[in-house]
């Protein structure tokens, strides 16, 4: 990557992580200089690259591998105002045994719910290894005071959430107040403590430009995100191959510079097995095999799982399956 | 001799209200009864069949939920559009079946009449095969016919237009959606029928028309778990047996091939073949001298 000057490691007070780039977050101006010094994104080239990687033909055994991998990477999500404990329990059961007719199906990575449902979800997946992720920080708009957001996070962590999906303050980001966004992520990171991994949602559909997505990715990683996530799934434009490719490049470059590995989670709009496999190709070709694991790559999705299961049944039996043979969620 | 260049028609599939080429990119040559080349038709693959099932399933809710009266209106509109394209169909049928122009015209007329006949049946079939059942208790007991779902239709091989309509119209008149495999050697009238359906208020996906090798496309459809019934009219004996075995896997309704004279008035058998009867018991409570006890 043609990049910014390297910065030497230094220690810093507070919860911010220490690595080769710690200096850049010393003040608003250094942070701004760093983020605006990131090379601009070649939008046409990025989209062409994402499209060309989407043309790979993945068949037979490779497809079977990809489907199982994708199932194991799904954050099975329900984020509706109408979520009931019953629905969350059903979702938990599905995460543990995605296909009850075939016990060789891997479990999903996690279930993703609102903070008040964490306890229910935790109980539903107890003992299975499936994690419970909770959105927090006034999801999905993120329009609340920092104290409110932190209380939201503490609440979810106290209820047993293994992962916290926070949203950044897009208003502050677009207004150029990068340090405010940074400080917020650091504060949430602290509130997560050691027990929960932090996913930072940028809502790429609201960031307008690829340059902004690249800046947000670096900002999030500098602040100590364990995962960077494209979107909430609540706006018109969600995860696209192009913006996910951009974020994968960012995590690859970040590890090259600092040695810290950060995960990526595209969310929203990924509905078919074909799409999911395209994303896996992106991961393999951009970030590399190290990311082909549910520790470092996730799909935020709900209907995707059913399509993966139908494709899995098709591979196993040779006949096309149908929606009658998977659950309606 | 005219110096105008001929404008040949590209025949395409009709799937989900759109006109795609085959996913495989293949075509095959269609010739008339004397062996002269007529056109290239798409040679569908199993993936085209899969896509057609997805489209048919998507359309099922809306089509089966539409009122029977509305379905009748829509089907009558199809007959109107067919009438408007009479010349084209007469030519296509004459070429496909080697008929004289007058005989082909008679076939097309019979086909339009057949369509109108089925359009009339949409809101009457329920009275004929459903209704209130007499029971000895304080209940209403009602039987009502309901569409089976997505029906795969192997159109007859010989009767390329009248036969086709005689098997497709009853399937959709009763509220099912159809994936139709056109006659292998004479698919052109079926592909043109797709153009008629696209311009006559029939929602996209209610009828999907595929052309190609019947055996190749029918096999994945017969085994498909999301296809609820299959009409084997266009299958020979060996293929029909094979498909019936594959169809047993998810207990599909199977209509076996039978010798049919398509020029005769059909009975209601083809409609009832793809209807399921739902019977409900509804308590009325005890009825005293004052009427209902509610």
Give an overview in words.
The complex is a heterodimer of chains A (329) and B (294). Chain A is an alpha/beta fold and 329 residues long. Chain A has helices at 28-37, 43-53, 60-72, 85-96, 118-124, 146-158, 170-174, 178-192, 210-222, 241-258, 273-286, 303-317; strands at 74-77, 110-113, 131-135, 163-167, 197-201, 227-229, 263-265, 299-301. In chain A, strands 7-6-5-4-3-2-1-8 form an 8-stranded parallel sheet. In chain B, the strands form 3 sheets. In chain B, strands 7-6-5-8-9 form a 5-stranded parallel sheet, with helices on both faces. Chain B has a 3-stranded antiparallel sheet with strand order 3-4-10. Chain B has a two-stranded antiparallel ribbon with strand order 1-2. The radius of gyration of chain B is 21 Å and the shape is globular. At the A-B interface, loops of A face helix 1 of B.
């Amino acid at each position: 990557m043609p990049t910014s000057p390297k910065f030497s490691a230094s220690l810093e007070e507070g919860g911010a992580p220490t690595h080769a780039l710690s200096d850049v977050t010393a003040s608003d101006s250094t942070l701004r200089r760093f983020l605006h010094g990131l090379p601009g994104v070649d939008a046409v080239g990025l989209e062409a690259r994402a499209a060309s990687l989407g043309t790979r033909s993945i068949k037979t055994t490779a497809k079977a591998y990809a489907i199982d991998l994708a199932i194991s990477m799904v954050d099975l999500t329900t984020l509706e105002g109408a979520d009931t404990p019953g629905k969350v329990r059903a979702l938990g059961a599905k995460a543990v045994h995605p296909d009850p007719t075939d016990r060789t199906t891997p479990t999903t990575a996690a279930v993703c719910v609102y903070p008040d449902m964490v306890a229910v979800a935790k109980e539903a997946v107890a003992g299975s290894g499936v994690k419970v992720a909770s959105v927090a920080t006034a999801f999905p708009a993120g329009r609340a005071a920092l104290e409110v957001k932190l209380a939201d996070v503490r609440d979810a962590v106290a209820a047993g959430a293994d992962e916290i999906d926070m949203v950044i303050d897009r208003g502050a980001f677009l207004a150029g107040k990068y340090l405010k966004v940074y400080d917020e992520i650091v504060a949430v990171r602290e509130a997560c403590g050691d027990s929960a991994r932090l996913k930072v949602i940028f809502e790429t559909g609201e960031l307008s430009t690829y340059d902004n997505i690249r800046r947000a990715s670096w900002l999030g990683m500098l602040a100590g995100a364990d995962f960077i996530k494209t979107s909430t799934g609540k706006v018109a434009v969600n995860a696209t191959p192009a913006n996910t490719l951009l974020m994968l490049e960012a995590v690859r470059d970040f590890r090259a510079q600092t040695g810290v590995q950060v995960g990526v989670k595209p969310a929203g709009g990924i509905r078919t097995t074909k799409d999911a496999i395209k994303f896996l190709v992106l991961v393999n070709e951009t970030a590399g095999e190290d990311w082909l694991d549910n520790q470092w790559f996730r799909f935020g999705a709900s209907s995707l799982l059913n399509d993966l299961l139908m494709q899995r049944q098709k591979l196993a039996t040779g006949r096309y399956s149908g929606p009658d043979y998977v659950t309606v969620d | 001799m005219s110096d105008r260049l001929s404008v040949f028609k590209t025949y395409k599939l009709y799937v989900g209200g759109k006109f795609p080429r085959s996913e495989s990119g293949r075509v095959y040559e269609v010739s008339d009864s004397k062996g002269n080349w007529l056109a290239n038709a798409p040679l569908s693959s199993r993936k085209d069949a899969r896509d057609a099932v997805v489209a048919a399933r998507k359309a099922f809710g809306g089509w089966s939920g539409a009122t029977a009266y509305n379905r009748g209106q829509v089907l009558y509109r199809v007959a109107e559009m067919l009438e408007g394209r009479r010349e084209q169909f007469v030519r296509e049928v004459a070429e496909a079946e080697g008929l004289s122009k007058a005989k082909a015209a008679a076939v097309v007329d019979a086909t339009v009449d057949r369509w109108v006949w089925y359009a009339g049946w949409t809101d009457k079939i329920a009275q004929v095969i459903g209704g209130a059942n007499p029971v000895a208790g304080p209940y209403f007991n009602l039987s009502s016919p309901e569409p089976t779902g997505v029906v795969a239709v192997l159109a007859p091989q010989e009767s390329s237009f009248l036969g086709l309509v005689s098997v497709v119209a009853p399937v959709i008149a009763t509220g099912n959606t159809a994936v139709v495999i056109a006659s292998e050697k004479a698919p052109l009238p079926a592909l043109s029928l797709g153009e008629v359906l696209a311009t006559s208020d029939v929602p996209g996906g209610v009828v999907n028309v595929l052309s190609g090798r019947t055996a190749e496309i029918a096999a994945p459809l017969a085994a498909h778990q999301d296809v609820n019934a299959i009409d084997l009219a266009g299958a020979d004996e060996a293929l029909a047996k094979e498909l019936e075995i594959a169809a047993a896997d998810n207990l599909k309704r199977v209509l076996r091939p039978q010798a049919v004279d398509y020029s005769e008035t059909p009975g209601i058998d083809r409609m009832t073949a793809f209807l399921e009867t739902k019977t409900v018991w509804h308590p009325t409570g005890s009825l005293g001298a004052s009427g209902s006890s509610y």
